[in-house]
Every structure is written in structure tokens, then in C-alpha cells.
Amino acid sequence: MTDTQRPAGASLGLYAASFGLLLTAGAFLGAAVLDELQETRLLWISAGLSYAATILALLSLLLPSRSAR
């Protein structure tokens, strides 16, 4: 039998922050659509937040996980 890997606290926190950023990016995208895409600023903010969420999710996967006891 192998030990299962559980995410460390920092890894789980980064993943949660990534999810929060993705939800915020979705809100900015929705606001841009409701504004009938008159400004591209909201789209750029949404894209930047999505990019940051991707980076945080990748970092959470790359952090070493701790072994279950």
C-alpha cells in the first residue's frame, strides 16, 4: 500500500486564492458584458485576474505535499 498525499496548508491556501481570483475575473467579465463591451479595460482586468489565478493554481500544484500519517 502507498501513502496518500494530502495538500499542505500553503498549497491549499494558494488553490483557494486561485479560485477566488477566478470568480472575481468572472464578475469583471460579466460587468464588461453588461456594459455592452464599451470599454476594454474591464476585459483586460478579467484577463489579468484569470492569468494570476492560473499562476497561483500552478504554484499550488508545484508545492511539495505532506505525507499522511
Describe this structure in words.
With 69 residues, the protein is mainly alpha-helical. Helices cover 70% and strands 6% of the residues. Helix 1 packs antiparallel against helix 2. The longest helix has 26 residues. The two termini are 13 Å apart.
**Biggest beta-sheet profile:** 2 strands, antiparallel
- Computed structural class: mainly alpha
Tell me the number of strands.
2
Oligomeric nature of the chains: single chain
Integer-rounded radius of gyration: 16 Å
Please estimate the helix content.
Answer: 55-70%
By DSSP (H or I, 4+ residues per run), the number of helices equals: 2
Instruction: Name the overall outline.
Output: elongated
Given as residue ranges, the uncertain stretches (5+ residues, pLDDT < 50) are none
Q: What share of residues are in beta strands?
A: 5-15%
SSE arrangement:
Layout lengths: L4 E2 L2 H26 L6 H22 L3 E2 L2
Antiparallel strand pairs: 1-2
Helix pairs in contact: 1-2
Would you kindly provide a brief summary of this structure?
With 69 residues, this protein is mainly alpha-helical.
Keywords:
2 strands, two-stranded antiparallel ribbon, 6% strand, mainly alpha, 2 helices, 69 residues, elongated
